[in-house]
Write a structure and sequence with these properties.
Elements: H1 9-20, H2 25-42, H3 44-52, H4 54-57, H5 68-72, H6 75-91, H7 97-117, H8 124-132, H9 135-142
Helix pairs in contact: 1-2, 2-3, 6-7
């Protein structure tokens, strides 16, 4: 965080992780309010920044709890980036930009096929429940405005 001094970052990070460790949406929002209160006295700019980002930071609460951890994590992206780095390091120097695009495109196509055919990051039943969650309840839980859908039109 660019707003937070480096010396205070470990404490703020620990408090922010305590928000994500809560068992239900109400507890998450309550813990976030406690975070803002505790940070507000010593780091008002950080508290204001976190308060402005509240909707984005707590958007995961609008989804079923079974997939919260997957929503927080960027492991699939990191794994993909690692695979791209591994493949490009083998080649070393590329003759032109098109060669890089072909190699990275092939890696992306291969990963897409793997995810399509085999592994699933989210279980289908959980995704179905998330899809059936009313938009108003999801938006309200996440503190976001309700999106217009075909049913609402």
């Amino acid at each position: 965080m660019g707003v937070c001094p480096k010396s205070a970052w470990p404490a703020v990070k620990t408090m922010l992780h305590s928000v994500y460790d809560q068992p239900d949406p109400a507890s998450v929002h309550a813990q976030f309010d406690k975070l803002l209160d505790s940070v507000g006295a010593s780091l008002p700019k950080v508290a204001a920044y976190l308060d402005d980002a509240r909707a984005d930071l707590l958007a995961f609460t609008g989804f079923p709890q079974q997939i919260w951890r997957q929503i927080w994590s960027n492991n699939p992206n990191e794994r993909l980036n690692k695979e791209i780095r591994r493949r490009t390091d083998v080649v070393g120097i590329f003759p032109d930009r098109d060669a890089v695009i072909r190699l990275v495109g092939a890696v992306l196509a291969e990963q897409h096929d793997e995810w399509t055919e085999g592994r699933r990051y989210f279980a289908l039943d959980v995704l179905e429940r998330a899809r059936k969650t009313p938009a108003a309840a999801t938006a309200e839980a996440a503190g976001l405005p309700e999106l217009e859908t075909a049913n609402n039109l």
